[in-house]
């Protein structure tokens, strides 16, 4: 079931097309947008080997002049050094203001390609073609771009909206199961923060730990509802002045876990799952959320094959210290997104450090 979702913004609205087999029509979709003739495809070697030729053929079919830049795969390469490589290829191929960067890959590629597009010649077009579930439901939509600083995740970046997002669910067939589960963490997040009906549908599914157990209808629903939830939130608050911060549910402690493990031990989705369990328990401790609903959330996370405990050997004081570098810190206070019911959350900076420590201690592997 194909669908087109609109992201309505004051300065630049755009569409997200969810189309099985749509990768082969990428050039056709882009040609409707009247973009310039030069296109730079940014990817990583693994994805490019699988989908590079099809992408280039789809672009050349309608007359685009295409150049390519492949960057090493992995969160630890999400740095200014990698973005410099994109700039070098852009310069070499004389990209102009009307030119377009196509991000073909997961969230890391999308974030870096988007940031390069935002900053090259003070901004050229970017089209997102996400190939991982996590990128499809989350990072490719909404215009957050950026790279990591050695001291913290995504500290360098810009809000820069794509011209178009093309989601082809058929490319998920080659996604490793662990990466599929990582994407499901963000899907569960939408269920908790925005869409109780989506949460119910996920609860009703027999298995969610691998793509092969998710039928086509449920996958279509997961993609469409997640993108719609993100589009709704971003449409109301593009630059994260308030409401958009709810999209960071599970990310506050999640980002700390990721950076303290050097982006090698847990992937982004696993870290978000751990962060959601922590946020849920904090909300229960503060009497903001029923423990039965927290148990439903944690059971769904477990059903998806995601972790609910901290990686062993992680220092709790280090996690609490790391929270101070989070982008949501305001006046020195860490802002948490905490659930009040399934489908609704609130933003608060009134979370005592001893409650955070107590919850993290409970989540340590015994």
From TrEMBL:
GO terms for cellular component: cytoplasm. The gene is aroB. It is found in: Cytoplasm. Transmembrane segments: none annotated. Zn(2+) binds at residues 186, 251, 268. Residues 69-181 form the 3-dehydroquinate synthase N-terminal domain. NAD(+) binds at residues 107-111, 131-132, 144, 153. Keywords: Amino-acid biosynthesis, Aromatic amino acid biosynthesis, Cobalt, Cytoplasm, Lyase, Metal-binding, NAD, Nucleotide-binding, Zinc. Its EC number is 4.2.3.4. Pfam families: DHQ_synthase, DHQS_C. One of its GO terms (biological process) is amino acid biosynthetic process. Pathway: Metabolic intermediate biosynthesis; chorismate biosynthesis; chorismate from D-erythrose 4-phosphate and phosphoenolpyruvate: step 2/7. Binds 1 divalent metal cation per subunit. Can use either Co(2+) or Zn(2+). This is 3-dehydroquinate synthase. GO terms for molecular function: 3-dehydroquinate synthase activity; metal ion binding; nucleotide binding. Belongs to the sugar phosphate cyclases superfamily. Dehydroquinate synthase family. SUPFAM superfamilies: Dehydroquinate synthase-like. Catalyzes the conversion of 3-deoxy-D-arabino-heptulosonate 7-phosphate (DAHP) to dehydroquinate (DHQ).
């Amino acid at each position: 079931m194909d669908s087109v979702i609109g992201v309505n913004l004051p300065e630049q609205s755009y569409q997200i097309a969810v189309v099985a087999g749509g990768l082969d029509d990428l050039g056709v979709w882009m040609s409707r947008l009247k973009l310039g003739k030069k296109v730079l495809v940014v990817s990583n070697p693994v994805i490019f080997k699988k989908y590079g030729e099809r992408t280039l053929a789809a672009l050349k079919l309608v007359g685009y002049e295409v150049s390519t830049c492949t960057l090493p795969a992995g969160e630890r390469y999400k740095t200014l050094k990698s973005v410099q490589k994109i700039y070098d290829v852009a310069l070499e191929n004389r990209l102009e203001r009307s030119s377009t960067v196509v991000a073909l890959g997961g969230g890391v590629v999308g974030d870096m390609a988007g940031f390069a597009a935002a900053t090259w010649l003070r901004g050229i077009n970017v089209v997102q073609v996400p190939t991982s579930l996590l990128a499809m439901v989350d990072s490719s939509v909404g215009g957050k771009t950026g790279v990591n600083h050695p001291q913290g995740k995504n500290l360098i970046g810009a809000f820069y909206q794509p011209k178009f997002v093309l989601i082809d669910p058929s490319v998920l067939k080659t996604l490793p199961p662990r990466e599929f589960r990582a994407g499901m963490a963000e899907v569960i997040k939408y269920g908790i923060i925005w869409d109780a009906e989506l949460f119910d549908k996920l609860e009703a599914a027999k298995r969610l730990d691998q793509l092969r157990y998710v039928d086509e209808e449920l996958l279509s629903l997961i993609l469409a509802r997640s993108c719609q939830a993100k589009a709704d939130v971003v449409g109301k608050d593009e630059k994260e002045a308030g409401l958009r911060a709810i999209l960071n549910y599970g990310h506050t402690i999640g980002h700390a876990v990721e950076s303290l493990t050097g982006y090698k031990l847990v992937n982004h989705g696993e870290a978000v799952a751990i962060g959601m369990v922590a946020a849920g328990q904090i909300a229960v401790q503060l009497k903001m959320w029923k423990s039965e609903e927290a148990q439903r959330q944690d059971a769904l996370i477990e059903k998806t094959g995601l972790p609910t405990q901290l990686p062993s050997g992680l220092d709790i004081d280090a996690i609490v210290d790391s929270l101070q570098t989070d982008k949501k810190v305001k006046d020195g206070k860490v802002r948490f997104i905490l659930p009040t019911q399934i489908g609704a959350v609130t933003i608060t900076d009134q979370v005592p450090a001893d409650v955070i420590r107590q919850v993290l201690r409970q989540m340590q592997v015994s």
